[in-house]
Design brief:
Layout: E1 5-7, E2 16-22, E3 28-31, E4 34-36, E5 43-49, E6 53-62, E7 69-78, E8 94-96
Antiparallel strand pairs: 1-8, 2-5, 3-4, 3-6, 6-7
């Protein structure tokens, strides 16, 4: 049988949400009220923390002359039914056999 000794044990886990797409390079893209910077080829990528709850994202592209628009609305829901986590700094010694 292994000797009884203390140890610190911890776990950290979370999630991120990435929204990506493409449009004309000279268009203006917004996600919600935030203007998204486009790459030279018109692609974009938006990354954020994905916390519990509903995230409702209206995404809109407006042509450079303002005469045409395209849009999509995305909704994401996260639910964490159980959480028993702690950081390494929060870990305390526990005795186990």
């Amino acid at each position: 049988m292994p000797p009884i000794k203390p140890r610190k044990f911890w776990l950290v886990a979370d999630a991120e949400l990435i929204v990506y797409g493409a449009t004309e390079p000279d268009a203006t893209v917004t996600i919600g009220d935030r203007v998204i910077k486009l790459n030279p080829d018109g692609t974009f990528r938006f990354q954020m923390s994905f916390q519990d709850g509903l995230i409702d994202y209206p995404i809109k592209a407006v042509a450079v002359d303002g005469e045409q628009t395209r849009s999509i609305q995305m909704k994401f829901t996260r639910e964490t039914p159980e959480r028993n986590t702690n950081t390494k700094a929060e870990a305390v010694e526990e005795w186990f056999a």
